Amino acid sequence: MKALAISYKGMEDITALEIKELIGKKASVKESCCVFECSKKELAKYCYLCQGANRVLILLEDFKIDNISDLKKIDGIDFSKWLKDGRTFAARSEIVDNELEDYDVQKTTGDKIDAKVDLDNPDITVFVYIYSDDCYVGVDFSGDTSKRDYKIKLTRDDLKGTIAYALVRLSGFEKGKSFLNLNAKTGTIAIESALFGSRKSVNFYNKQKFPFLKFIDIGLEQWDKEAQDVKVYAYDSPGYLDVVRKNAVVAGVDVKLEKIEADCVVRYKRKKAEIKDLKKEREIKHGKEVLKVENFID
Questions:
Q1: Average pLDDT value for the chain
Q2: Furthest C-alpha separation in the chain
Q3: What is the set of domains in the chain, with CATH numbers?
Q4: Within 13 Å of residue 133, how many CA atoms lie on the same side as its CB?
Q5: What is the reported pTM?
Q6: From residue 268, how far is each of 37, 158, 265 by CA, in Å?
Q7: Among 94, 222, 246, 275, which residue has the fewest nearby CB atoms (within 10 Å)?
């Protein structure tokens, strides 16, 4: 079975690394996403434990797209095993760097599928992901895995959890090392590092969220492990540190609110992140925003 993990342009290698670490599968890196082979059980494990993917699909077809008529290739997809026994569906999409509109893509896709539509609570979501001229069509297995339930306090320029995770991995943080998040703001980077270091799922407290639970019976508790101690620190003004504390409590992780000399350091400013001893600078593109990732300057 083919699967697609959608991330952001500039962090695909980190997504591929996470796939290898979590389920032992080698992924083919594409622009803003990764394709890999696995079983449904392996995919469920990846969805539950991943931090770097925005959404995960069972990939049914991929092709080049220039205009709406190219969606005719959906006609060749057999949806019968997904939509048997009166199952309902909805068509959803995400479009990046392409002038096509979501409404047109979703309507055209839905018109090509012979099954009952339920836009509010479908049994199956057929998802179309378009990046530039690449089109991927599949069954939404994970839902939105970029959403973080621990974010009870936000700021205007708050960082996506998946991007924060990428910054943690670029810092070289691993077991036995200490991590410091400067300019912590709401603590997203510090919390993602604590989740990664402790091996605790982002969705530990929200196991019922995944769409795949509608069509496979599986207990996610089997992948919960005893939390490991981590040395994660966050530093900012007192007002922000109070927000970090509250968000960390909701996430169920230990983040110490002080500044230390740490092995790994990440400082985030709007549109720029600085990382201590960064091996190679890069850009991460998320929507119309570009985050520059540079070496840390004290």
A1: 95
A2: 62
A3: 2-140 (3.30.2130.30), 161-201+226-295 (3.40.50.150)
A4: 3
A5: 0.96
A6: 35, 10, 10
A7: 222
